[in-house]
Request: fold
Amino acid sequence: MTITEKILAAHAGLDRVEPGQIVSVKVDVALGNDITAPIAIREFRRIGAERVFDRSRVVLVPDHFAPNKDIASAEQCKVLREFAREQDLDHYFETGEMGVEHALLPEQGIVVPGDVVIGADSHTCTYGALGAFSTGVGSTDLAAAMVTGEAWFKVPESIKFVYRGELPPWVEGKDLILYTIGLIGVDGALYRAMEFTGPVIERLGMDDRLTMANMAIEAGGKNGIIAPDATTRAYVEGRAKRPPVYYRSDPDARYAEVIEIDVGRIRPQVAFPHLPSNTRAIDDVGEVPIDQVVIGSCTNGRIEDLRRAARVLREQRVAKYVRCIVIPATQEIYRQAMREGLLEVFLDAGCAVSTPTCGPCLGGHMGILAKGERAVATTNRNFVGRMGHPESEVYLASPSVAAASAVKGRIASPEEVVA
Amino acid sequence: MKFRGRVWKFGPDIDTDRIIPARYLNTSDPAELAKHCMEDADPEFVAKMRPGDIILADKNFGCGSSREHAPIAIKAAGVSCVIARSFARIFYRNAFNMGLPIFECPEAFDGIEEGDEVEVDAGTGRIRNLTRGTEFRAAPIPPFMQELIADGGLMAHIAKRAGKG
Reply:
């Protein structure tokens, strides 16, 4: 069996499962945010449910339009707060403790290797980087899991991606996943598990792995997953709130497809509007002037991302008439960036540094685009109107490319800024 | 159950941000969401469509975010059902869970034009193009999903199982 099949089988109480089989599984964590949880809570109440199945396993994070951006958003956050208080939830994160959910849960050890996690947020697939089965669902699925502690799934077929070769300079986890999505398309992994393997993945740090698993959904994938190894164990140690279980795919596991990728020739990638699959190598971008840069989000708002952005922005200035907004994804990342002097680098360069929020990634607040404006963002989606006006544009890239673009005022390679 | 209405056609990879832009997600009120249904795909859609009309889309309809606001907006706008060459998985799941009828049928996209009058038989999956006199067959709905529909959606299904329904 594959790692995905093994985790689903274990949570279904079965010895083995086959792709296509419908299984009901126990969920270790069920997650909601200020956009999706209000509907789940409404459904929870509608059927007369009184208590959540386990108050330590239902997690609520008001991160999308929080700190409250307007009265309506404040009302939605209030629904979460009141429900968390009523149910006495262990894991409710108020502004001040709150971080972007998919950076926060692994960091706080709330999700651990071997888990089944569902979240009413499509980027819940992020936790696959730890070797968990983790997938996005809607509010009604979340409501059902809050009541029963279970969810139903069709066991997905898996695609095995094997990354080989030496990573060239300035090529990061973000470039690997953008390149992969460009290769297979936005529905290239529809309904399937994306298993990221190979020597390149084994050498990749946890922040890059989280970035890759995070964007599995942008290829239509049900989940992205990476087998736990020494890097995983080192990350989990001292954080895990429950004992982790480490699974690996069997040598004779069956895959729907095996895709080999030689990373040696990959250049930093940029996804042009309006699909994450619309990728180009940085050398083929041409002259694209920009108005804004966003460095943050559940995709690239972690400490390693901020270190890379700071490396490019050190002793540089953000171009005139360009806004560069840096959003550390959690309070811990914010504090660490402060300790390392990264925040000072950003401030010296003329960046705005924000408290954690999903904010501009989904066109919520903290950096909305006007008609005709262009942004380079380290976020995950460049759909029509994603960051603001329907006629604005988002270009997806790594933190290094985003930082270089802020300095140049156009989409630029870090090689143009750092000697 | 049968649905009958005019068809509005949309291209491939219509994401949930186009179905209901995030700038309207500070509410989950269906009537409010309905006002902005499909706004960033076709700003005139809500003004043009009539209750009972049908959305017909190319591949990967509903890709992107998990927001259940997307099928809620479509249903509350009065769209009777959605036919697509294929659906993104979270949208597919959400539609069944909350009760928006959807049908997967690659041939229908090629054989139906915008404005055609179409009738869909939910029981048999038969899609009839009344304007052109042609007929298509939707992919069968998996037995487990049929059970959900019969119970009236996922929450009614679990309430029934728990003996509360």
Q: What stands out?
A: Residues 105 and 116 of chain B are 16 Å apart (CA to CA). Chain B touches chain A through 42 residues (CB under 8 Å). The first strand of chain B starts at residue 2 and ends at 10. The helical segments of chain B are 16-19, 30-34, 45-48, 69-76, 89-98, 106-111, 143-151, 154-161.
